[in-house]
């Protein structure tokens, strides 16, 4: 009996390994225009992350705010300097609480993700209780996330209770996407029963293989959208032990959006294959446009 089970396990290992590889290559596909357009409100919310906290609290930040006119703000914070701006509120059309974090300009994020002094650290066990100790993330991202974590948590809890909401969507661009991805791990540990979604733009790699596997194993829906030859999504390098979770959408030079299954899909239609060499990268692609929207306030 035991031999039989071992034999079956052996057989399935032999059969699934190559098939899984073929399946992930075969299922690279183009996203249709309605699916691309469905991201537009989130893209505007990520862009609005760059606006001053005083203006997102009153939803008077101009075109960025007007793009999502029904939004009901709950709280905002940060100073745009030592603490990235953030805001929390409710979108009645999407029936979702929205959390957005400010990004940073291409040169600044570039120096943060290529800083040789940066190390991988475990996440703070008060903020992230009972996570496996194998999980490690970029030191700088963990620091930035910790600065706003508890304020964001209480704002999300207020918004959920005020609007009877069960869905929470976390967005951000660049550094803001990295902070939002950490929120996508942090908030579910403190808010059981809610449904979480992450939509990040120009996301750098945030953590190690165990981190990426943990993100993939959660019920949270994860999408990270990268634009043309933006080099930020391929740093810090895989050779330094950094891995993206699944959920990549890659915008081609043609403007077509490609669905790239798996972690760090090596296809030329995805960012890892498209920007195979850092010299192929172009930092001007970092801010977009993402279906016509350029990040910033
Ligand atoms: C972990 O986070 C808690 C809550 O924000 C904070 O009080 C504590 O100082 C942090 N611990 C470390 C080691 O940074
Ligand atoms: C980088 O991208 C910008 C904007 O798309 C473009 O104008 C420029 O020519 C690109 N630079 C290189 C070296 O390809």
Automatic annotation (TrEMBL):
Q: Does the keyword Disulfide bond apply?
A: yes
A Gene Ontology biological process annotation? lipid metabolic process
User: What is catalysed by this protein?
Assistant: a monoacylglycerol + H2O = glycerol + a fatty acid + H(+); a diacylglycerol + H2O = a monoacylglycerol + a fatty acid + H(+)
In the UniProt record, the signal sequence range is 1-16
- Residues that span the membrane, as ranges: none
| Family according to the record | Belongs to the AB hydrolase superfamily. Lipase family. Class 3 subfamily.
Q: Which residues form the Fungal lipase-type domain?
A: 99-238
CDD domains, from UniProt? Lipase_3 (cd00519)
Top-level taxon in the UniProt lineage: Eukaryota
Protein name as annotated: Fungal lipase-type domain-containing protein
Q: Which UniProt keywords apply?
A: Disulfide bond, Signal
Q: Which Pfam family is one of those matched by this entry?
A: Lipase_3
- SUPFAM superfamilies recorded: alpha/beta-Hydrolases
